[in-house]
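As a warm-up, study this chain.
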Amino acid sequence: MFAFLKNIRRRRRMKALEVSHIRVFPNVEELERVALVWRMENQEEVAQLDAVLDFFKSAKLEATVVIVEHGKIFRSKAAREEFSLLCDDKGVMFIPKDEVKWYGFPKGEVVKQLFHEPQYDMCVCICGSSDFTVEYLASGIKSNFTAGMFEPQWCNFSFILKKGSFLPTAQEYLVALFEYMRKMNQE
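Now compare it with the structure written out below.
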């Protein structure tokens, strides 16, 4: 019964968005604004935040990074608040797990702010498996092209580059994705 109600709420939320994404590979050299939706699942991923931000900086891209907390990354509420302050200092949007409703819908000012941002050239989703919260955010972000690393259950991605053992970090995934897109544009 619980899963049935959760799925009804999820379908209604996704239907309300109805955002379409272009299926043509964007030219990496012409990208200006990129949105990254990242579901962090462990402390190792928290440590990768600076490397991901440096990647966007070196590529000269204006990036909006949204981090969705998943699982028990932070042992205490103080550690979560400290990470939230760190995110604020770096210009990263953070959605703690207490700001996600029981059926996976994120609430709060971060979502409102994100959905009212102007158009992005590309949205990238970093998440190990299908996750309603990540898919909802990716669907609501106005972008021409959406790439992810998993088969979405609730929305459509323009392109999927699955993360394998050869891409252990978020930064390596982004580098591989951008290199693949460069190759596709050359052909």
